[in-house]
Write a structure and sequence with these properties.
The chain has 932 residues and is α+β, with helices and mostly antiparallel strands. The chain is 44% helix and 18% strand. Its cofactor is Zn(2+).
C-alpha cells in the first residue's frame, strides 16, 4: 500500500511539473464567430477529425417551456415538421435529396427538442461537394423561418408523433416523469411543460396554432448556425452572411423569458408505482439553482469539482456496496444539470429485497461522511492524477477532437449566452486549477450542495410493494444529517498478484495477410495471433480473441449455468485476487469474456505502456479464473432483481414465446426464470467456463492499433504462448433448431397501462454464405427499412419507427435472418403486418435505381468515414476469421458495392421470399385496454 501511494504521488508530481506555463488570462476561440445584424449567431470551425467531412447544426434557444397551456407538445411537433416541407424543399424532398448523397435520416439527419432548446443536425457531410454544402445552408435558412406547415403534412405527422409518444411511454419513463414533475420541478413552469406534450393536444390543435408558435419563436435573435469540419472558415463565413443576413427580425417580438425552479424548504417524497415496474429504485436528490452569472473560469472549476466528486464517491459507493451485508446491489453518485436553471446532487441505488430504509440510511450516511471528510489521500490523488493525465493528453492532442463534440460544446455555450473560449486555454486552465486543488476544496464544494433545503426522495417500483411512509423516510434523513460518522477507511488490498513461472512459446509460422499490412503468427502451443499496426489513433490497441463452438458444444445439463458463468467469473477476480483487489492492484487490465451460442469471444484494449497488463489479463482469464460463492451470490441477487423487472414487463411472456418459436421450440433454449436461478451452482458455472475458455490452439487472437510490433511479439510469446494448447480444433454443433419453412404465429394479449401493439416478424431460410451475398442481404435490410419508413410511418402514420435487421449467418448453417419489429396503434396492426409482407415481396420485382443508389452512397460514405478507425479493422479481421474469408481492401469493398445491380437485389429477394420460414409475432392489449 505504501509503495502504491508513493507511485501515485510521483505521478502527480510529474504532472504538476508538466503543467508548464500558467494559462494566463481568458483567451477567446481563434475560430470564426460572429453575430449578424438580425441577431443570429454563427460559429465556423475548421476541423479535420474526421477529414473531408462537415457537420451542420442549427440551434434554437426555444423549447417546450415557452409553450402556452393549449400548446403542450407543439415545440416537439414543430421539430418534426422541419423535415416535412420548406420553401425550397417541398414535401419529403429534403430527406430524399440528402439520402441520395449518402446522408442517412435518423443517424446523420436528426433533431431533438428539450425544455429550453431545439437543435437540428445534418452530420458527416462530404466536404468536397460544394453544391451539397450550399444546399444544406439553404436547408438551415428554411428552418429559420420558411417551413411550409401545410394542413396535409400537419395531419400526416399527427399520427407519427402520436406513435412516438406511445412508443416512449414506458413504465420507467412514466415513473421518472412523476418524480420530476411532483418532486424536482414542482412549483415551476417546467413541471407542466414536458417536451412530449399531451396526446389530446397533438390530435386536435388548430393548424394556425402551430404556425403562430413558429412565427413567434423561430426567429434569428434566438438562433445559431454551427458549422464544424474540413472547410475554409472565411469562405464559409461569406456564404453564411450572404444566406442568413437577409432574414428579417420582426418588430414587437415577445421577450424570451427565463423561468426558474423554486427550491423547496421542506422535504419532498414521491413514490411512483406502476404495474409494469419491478424491484424498486431509490433516488436521493438535493436541488441547487444554477448561477447564470458564473464566469468561464468559474464554470470550468465547477465542472472539474463535479467530475472529481462524481468519480471518487461513485467508486467508493461501489466498493462498499459490494461488501457482504450491504443493503444495496449497486449505488451511484453524481452532481449534474437536470434542466437549464437547476442542478441536482443525486444518489441512486438498487436496494436489496426488503431493504428500502436500510438502503436510504446507507446512502444518506455515506453522503454525510463524504461531506464531512472528503476523500482519503489515496482516493484523492488517484483521481486527480487520472484527470490531470487526461487533460495533458488533450493538450498534447491539440484541436484533434471530433467535429460533433466541438459542435456540442459550441451550441451549449450559445445557450448560456457566453463567449466561446479557446479549447487549449480551457484545458490549460483546468490543469493549472487541479495542480493546486486540495481535499479541503472538495469538502467546501460538497458542503455548498449539501443543504437541508431542496431534499427530494424518489422511489419507483411495482405497485404490489408496500413503501415506507414519508415520516419514516424523513426520520432516516434527519438522523443521518445529524450524525458524525467516522472518516472513511479505504479498504486495504495488500495482496500481490501471484503468477507462476511462464514457459512461453516460440513462433513456428509467420504469414502476411492478403489485402492488408497485417501478419499472422502461429505459436508452438497452437495459438494463432494476428498483429495489425495502424497509425489511426495514438495510444490505442484493441484486442479480440475468437473460437468456434460456444454453447452448442455444452451438455444439456450445463446450459442453465452457461448464461451466467462468465458473469460469476468476472465478479470473482483472477488468480489469488478478488475483483476489488484486482482493480486496486492496477496490475491487470480487464478482459471481457462472452460465451455465445456458437463461439467464445474475448475483448479488451490497452496501449503500449500498459500492454503487459492486458497480456496478464488474457493469460489469467484462461488459466486462473476465480469462482467463489460470494460472487455467485452477488450474481444471483442481481438476477433476482432483473427477473422481477422482466416479469413485470408486459412483453416478457411474448419475448420468451418468440425466442422459443425462432428456435423451433428446442429444449436447448434457456429462459430466465426462477427455475433457472435455482439451478445456478458454483461448480457448474466453473465447469462451463473451464470447458469453453481453454485450449489456446482453438483461438485466434487479434491486436489492432498503435503498437511496437517487436515488443508486442515478446509479450505474445510470453503470455499467450504460456496458455495450454492441445492443437485440437472445435466445430459448432448444429442442433437443427431453425424454424421450419412455414408460418409460425405467436399471437398474445396482455393488460397494458399504455395500450399498444408490438409486431415482430422473423424471416429465415438457407442461403449460401459469401461476402457478396452478405452485402446484398444487408442492402435488402436497408431497402426494407426505407420502404417501411415511407409506408408504415409516413403514409399510414402507424408507427414512430420500424427496426429492420438483416444478417447472413455462417454457423451453425449458412442461412439468412431478417427481423422486422415495430410498435403501433392496435387498430392498425392487421394493415401494417400486411404491408410488411407486401413490401418484402415487391423487392422481387419492383426496385428503382434511385433507391439502390441511396443505399450504395451511404455504404461507401460509411466506409470512407470508418476506414481510419481501429475498431473498423478489428471488425473486418474478426469477421474474416469467423467466416474463413479474406480481408478485403477498402477499394475492393467499394468496388463490390458499386457492382451490385438491381437484378442482384431482385434475385436475392426472390430467393428469400421462396425459402423463408416466418415467425409472425403480435402482442395486443387486452380487450378492456383497447378502449383506453
Amino acid at each position: 500500500m505504501l509503495i502504491r501511494n508513493y507511485l501515485v504521488f510521483i505521478i502527480f508530481l510529474c504532472l504538476r511539473f508538466a503543467v508548464g506555463q500558467e494559462p494566463g488570462e481568458y483567451k477567446p476561440s481563434p475560430h470564426t464567430t460572429g453575430i449578424l445584424e438580425n441577431g443570429m449567431h454563427y460559429y465556423i470551425v475548421h476541423n479535420e477529425n474526421p477529414a473531408n467531412r462537415v457537420s451542420f447544426y442549427f440551434a434554437q434557444n426555444v423549447g417546450s417551456v415557452l409553450e402556452e397551456d393549449g400548446q403542450l407538445g407543439l415545440a416537439h411537433f414543430l421539430e418534426h415538421m422541419a423535415f416535412n416541407g420548406t420553401k425550397h424543399f417541398e414535401d419529403k424532398k429534403m430527406i430524399k435529396y440528402l439520402e441520395k448523397n449518402g446522408i442517412k435520416f435518423g443517424t446523420e439527419i436528426n433533431a431533438f427538442t428539450d425544455y429550453d432548446e431545439t437543435v437540428y443536425s445534418i452530420r458527416r457531410v462530404p466536404a468536397g461537394n460544394e453544391k451539397l454544402l450550399d444546399s444544406i445552408l439553404l436547408i438551415l435558412h428554411d428552418w429559420s423561418g420558411d417551413l411550409l406547415l401545410t394542413n396535409e403534412e400537419i395531419d400526416n405527422e399527427r399520427g407519427v408523433v402520436r406513435e412516438e409518444l406511445r412508443t416512449r411511454n414506458k413504465p420507467d419513463k412514466r415513473a421518472s416523469d412523476k418524480v420530476e414533475s411532483q418532486g424536482l420541478l414542482t412549483g415551476s413552469r417546467y413541471a407542466e411543460r414536458n417536451p412530449a406534450g399531451k396526446v389530446e393536444i397533438i390530435n386536435n390543435f388548430e393548424y394556425q396554432e402551430l404556425r403562430d408558435y413558429y412565427k413567434k419563436w423561430y426567429r434569428p435573435d434566438l438562433q445559431a448556425v454551427v458549422i464544424v469540419g474540413d472547410i475554409d472558415e472565411k469562405e464559409v463565413e461569406k456564404k453564411v452572411k450572404k444566406m442568413f443576413s437577409p432574414i428579417p427580425l420582426r418588430d414587437n417580438l415577445p421577450e424570451r423569458k427565463v423561468y426558474n425552479i423554486p427550491v423547496n424548504d421542506d422535504f419532498s417524497y414521491v413514490v411512483a408505482t406502476d404495474k409494469e415496474l419491478g424491484h424498486p429504485t431509490l433516488e436521493y436528490y438535493i436541488k441547487h439553482p444554477v448561477d447564470p452569472s458564473l464566469t468561464e473560469k468559474e464554470e470550468l472549476e465547477k465542472n472539474l469539482n463535479n467530475q472529481i466528486c462524481n468519480s471518487i464517491f461513485s467508486q467508493r459507493l461501489q466498493a462498499i456496496g459490494n461488501l457482504p451485508g450491504s443493503p444495496v446491489l449497486m449505488a451511484n453518485f453524481s452532481i449534474t444539470n437536470l434542466v437549464r436553471p437547476l442542478d441536482v446532487l443525486k444518489i441512486s441505488a438498487q436496494p436489496k429485497k426488503d431493504s428500502l430504509l436500510p438502503a436510504l440510511k446507507f446512502m444518506a450516511t455515506e453522503l454525510r461522511r463524504f461531506v464531512l471528510y472528503g476523500a482519503t489521500p489515496t482516493e484523492f490523488e488517484r483521481t486527480r492524477s487520472a484527470i490531470m493525465g487526461q487533460l495533458q493528453h488533450s493538450i498534447n492532442e491539440g484541436e484533434n477532437r471530433g467535429s460533433d463534440l466541438i459542435a456540442l460544446n459550441i451550441y451549449k455555450t450559445f445557450f448560456k449566452n457566453k463567449p466561446l473560449a479557446s479549447h487549449q486555454w480551457r484545458q490549460q486552465y483546468k490543469l493549472s486549477y487541479l495542480a493546486d486543488f486540495q481535499n479541503k476544496d472538495l469538502i467546501k464544494y460538497m458542503r455548498k450542495y449539501y443543504t437541508p433545503r431542496g431534499n427530494v426522495i424518489g422511489i419507483s417500483g411495482s405497485d404490489t410493494i408496500t413503501y415506507p411512509p414519508g415520516e419514516k423516510v424523513l426520520k432516516v434523513l434527519k438522523e443521518a444529517g445529524k450524525s458524525t460518522p467516522q472518516p472513511y477507511k479505504e479498504i486495504k488490498y495488500d495482496k500481490k498478484l501471484r503468477l507462476l513461472t511462464l514457459p512461453g512459446s516460440e513462433i513456428v509460422k509467420k504469414e502476411k495477410l492478403k489485402g492488408i499490412d497485417a501478419h499472422k503468427y502461429t505459436l508452438s502451443n497452437g495459438a494463432r495471433v494476428t498483429l495489425f499496426p495502424t497509425p489511426y489513433k495514438t495510444g490505442q490497441i484493441l484486442f479480440s480473441a475468437i473460437s468456434p463452438g460456444g454453447r452448442s458444444l455444452l451438455d444439456q445439463s450445463l446450459l442453465s449455468n452457461s448464461l451466467f458463468a462468465t458473469v460469476v467469473a468476472s465478479e470473482s477476480g483472477l488468480a489469488n485476487l478478488g475483483k476489488q483487489e484486482l482493480i486496486n492492484s492496477g496490475e491487470v487490465s480487464s478482459v471481457k469474456v462472452q460465451l455465445e451460442d456458437y463461439e467464445e469471444l474475448l475483448t479488451g484494449n490497452s496501449n503500449m505502456p500498459n500492454a503487459e497488463k492486458l497480456f496478464k489479463g488474457i493469460y489469467l482469464t484462461f488459466t486462473a479464473p476465480g469462482f467463489d460463492n460470494d460472487a455467485l451470490e452477488i450474481t444471483r441477487q442481481g438476477l433476482e432483481r432483473l427477473l422481477t423487472v422482466i416479469k413485470s414487463n408486459v412483453q416478457s411472456d411474448f419475448t420468451d414465446s418468440l425466442k422459443l418459436a425462432k428456435n423451433n421450440y428446442s429444449n436447448r433454449e434457456v429462459l430466465l426464470n426462477k427455475e433457472l436461478l435455482d439451478k445456478l451452482t458454483i461448480e457448474k458455472a466453473e465447469a462451463v467456463y473451464k470447458d469453453r475458455i481453454r485450449n489456446a490452439s482453438d483461438f485466434d487472437f487479434v491486436f489492432v492499433g498503435d503498437m511496437d510490433t517487436g515488443e508486442l511479439l515478446s509479450l505474445v510469446k510470453k503470455y499467450i504462448g504460456s496458455i495450454p494448447g492441445d492443437h485440437s480444433h472445435e466445430t459448432p454443433f448444429d442442433h437443427k433448431i431453425k424454424p421450419d419453412k412455414r408460418i409460425e404465429k405467436v399471437y398474445m394479449s396482455r393488460p397494458m397501462q399504455n395500450p399498444q401493439a408490438t409486431v415482430n416478424l422473423y424471416f429465415t431460410g438457407s442461403l449460401k454464405y459469401s461476402v457478396k451475398n452478405e452485402l446484398i442481404v444487408n442492402m435488402i435490410g436497408q431497402l426494407l427499412s426505407k420502404r417501411y419508413l415511407e409506408r408504415i410511418r409516413e403514409e399510414e402514420g402507424g408507427t414512430y419507427g420500424v427496426k429492420v435487421t438483416a444478417t447472413l449467418n455462417f454457423v451453425p448453417e449458412e442461412s439468412f435472418g431478417i427481423n422486422v419489429r415495430f410498435n403501433c396503434n392496435p387498430a392498425k396492426t392487421e394493415r401494417l403486418v400486411q404491408i410488411v409482407y407486401e413490401d418484402m415481396k415487391k423487392l422481387s420485382y419492383q426496385l428503382n435505381n434511385d433507391e439502390l443508389l441511396q443505399i450504395k452512397n451511404n455504404l461507401k460514405k460509411e466506409i470512407d468515414e470508418r476506414k481510419e478507425l481501429n475498431n473498423y479493422w478489428m471488425e473486418k479481421l474478426v469477421r474474416s476469421i469467423r467466416t474463413r474469408t479474406q480481408v478485403l481492401k477498402t477499394k475492393e469493398d467499394v468496388k463490390m458495392i458499386e457492382g451490385i445491380t438491381e437484378a442482384d437485389i431482385r434475385k436475392m429477394a426472390s430467393l428469400i421470399n421462396r425459402n423463408a420460414g416466418v415467425v409472425e409475432g403480435v402482442l395486443m392489449p387486452s380487450t378492456k385496454d383497447l378502449k383506453k
